[in-house]
Structures are given as C-alpha cells and as structure tokens.
C-alpha cells in the first residue's frame, strides 16, 4: 500500500496536472480567438496557480503556444507547403511568395520584441490586462460599425492580393500584443481589416504570421531558461502542448466557420465585459 505521504504527493501532482490541463484548454481557445490568450493565462494564474517558479511560469506561457501553432501547421500544411506535389509550379511559387510576405511581416515584432521584452514583462498585471481588453474590444466594434456603414469594397479578397507593403503594415500590429491583454490574433486581424482585407483573409494571414513569431519566441525562452528541466517540468510542458494542439484545431475550425456569416463585434463585447470583471475583481482585492 502507498504510504500516506506518497498518497499526498500523488494527489498534489494530479491536482497540478489538472491545472495544466485547464490552462492549456483556455490557451488553445483564446490563442486564436481575438480575446488575448496571455491575458487570460495571467488572470487564471490567480485562480489556478501552478506550484512552479516565476521563471518556469514565464516559460510555460510561451512554450504552451507551440502546441497551438502546430495546429496551424497541421490544418494548413498543404497551403503552407511550397514543395507539395499537389501544386503546380506557379502555385508553388505563390506559396514561396506567401512565406516571404509572412517573414517580412514578422520583422517589426521580432526586432522591437527583443529590445523591449524585459520592460513588457513588468506589465503583467490585472490593470494593464483589463485596459487592453477594453480598448481593443471598443476598436473591434468601431471598425465593424464603420465598415457596415461605409459598405467599403474589400481590396484584399485572397492571400495573393496582399502586397509586401501590406505585409509590413499588418506585421507592425504584432508589436501591440507585447502589452498583456492585447491579443496577437486580435491586433493582426485589426491590422488586416484596416488594410482592406476580408475577415477570412485577415484571419488566415494572422494565423500564418504566428508560425515564425511563436516558434522563435518559444526557442528563445527555452534557451534563456537554460535547458535545466526537472522531469515534472518536462511533463507539464509536453502535456500542455498536446492539449493546446488538440483544442486549437477545433477552435481554428470554429472561428473560420464563424466569420463566414458573422463579424467580430461579439468578441469586442466579450473583451469589454471581461475587462470590466477584471477591474471589479482588482478593486475587491
């Protein structure tokens, strides 16, 4: 029979794995919906606080996103693969061009992110998250209302319509999510809409831009952490990535189907309500 002490240890580990599971589910959902995954994870840390060091928690927030981004690679593999035998030579060239635009779009966030990363880490608090949630929620609603009134003709109706200049401008919006609560997908979708892209194309290009950014950010965090992981930490990271991968597949499919018939205002309202709840909780504390 297990001793009482061993039983307690196993129960503690089980509870921590449940926390990892719940955090990963939330991450897999909110990474792709324009509601800020990092903001949600920071807020949930107050409720589902993992018994880990601050350094590992910072690593966890980034590396769990690997599972989410692998879902994009899985779902869009044919579209993103320039060597696919299913494609004609011109189609392969178009795919390579798409990758050039995606890589160009990541430059602003990569450069600025490296410079101000340590400064942004100090902004991980409820007030900053709540403010970002509310501000970008209002922006989403304003953009959708403006487009509904103006009946503006969509300039970018497919990925090939995105110019290199468009890619740079949309990519610049990836700098905004360095502020917790902003949402990487949300800010880049806004950028795409402002450039004249359809909701579908703005969303897809936002997904693709996340591939190099999130792989790069995860690699840098892993290197910075020093590769010194306990068996417990390795289990947490692997389990989290698997869960986030599975949940992200369903979330991405849902969002792409949703925006075919709906706009983004619902997410704007959600952000405002959530931001208000965060402020209320902060005042109560």
Structure, briefly:
The protein has 285 residues and is mainly alpha-helical. It has one domain (4-284).
Main features:
single chain, 285 residues, mainly alpha, 11 helices
Overview of the structural elements:
The chain is mostly helical and 285 residues long. The protein has one domain (4-284). Helices cover 75% and strands 0% of the residues. It contains 11 helices and no strands. It has helices at 4-30, 37-45, 54-75, 77-80, 89-121, 126-150, 164-172, 184-194, 199-225, 231-258, 265-284. The termini are far apart. The mean pLDDT is 84.
Give helix and strand order, one letter per element, not per position: HHHHHHHHHHH
Q: Helical percent range?
A: over 70%
Low-pLDDT regions: none
**Major beta-sheet overview:** none
| Number of separate strands | 0
Give average pLDDT, whole number: 84
Shape annotation:
globular
Distance between the termini: 44 Å
Structural class, from helix and strand content?
mainly alpha
How big a fraction of the residues is strand?
Answer: under 5%
Work out the count of structural domains. Answer: 1
Q: How many DSSP helices?
A: 11
Our Rg estimate from Cα atoms comes to 20 Å
């Amino acid at each position: 029979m297990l001793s009482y002490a061993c039983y307690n240890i196993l129960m503690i580990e089980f509870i921590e794995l449940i926390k990892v599971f719940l955090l990963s589910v939330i991450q897999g959902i909110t990474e792709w919906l324009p509601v800020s995954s990092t903001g949600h994870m920071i807020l949930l840390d107050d409720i589902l606080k993992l018994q880990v060091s601050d350094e590992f928690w910072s690593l966890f927030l980034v590396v769990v996103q690997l599972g989410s981004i692998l879902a994009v690679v899985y779902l869009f593999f044919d579209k993103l693969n320039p060597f696919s035998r299913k494609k004609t030579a011109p189609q392969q060239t178009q795919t390579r061009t798409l990758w050039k635009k995606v890589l160009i779009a990541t430059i602003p966030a990569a450069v600025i992110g490296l410079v101000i990363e340590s400064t942004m880490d100090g902004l991980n608090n409820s007030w900053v998250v709540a403010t970002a949630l509310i501000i970008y929620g209002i922006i989403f609603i304003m953009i959708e209302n403006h487009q509904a009134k103006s009946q503006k003709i969509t300039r970018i109706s497919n990925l090939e319509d995105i110019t290199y200049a468009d890619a740079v401008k949309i990519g610049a919006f990836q700098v905004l999510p360095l502020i917790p609560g902003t949402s990487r997908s949300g800010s880049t979708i806004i950028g795409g809409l402002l450039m004249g892209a359809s909701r579908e194309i703005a969303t897809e290009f936002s997904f693709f831009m996340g591939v190099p950014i999130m792989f790069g950010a995860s690699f840098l965090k892993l290197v910075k952490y020093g590769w010194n992981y306990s068996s417990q930490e390795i289990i947490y990271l692997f389990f989290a990535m698997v869960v986030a991968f599975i949940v992200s597949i369903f979330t991405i499919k849902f969002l792409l189907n949703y925006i075919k018939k709906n706009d983004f205002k619902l997410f704007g309202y959600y952000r405002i309500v959530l931001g208000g709840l965060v402020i209320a909780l902060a005042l109560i504390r």
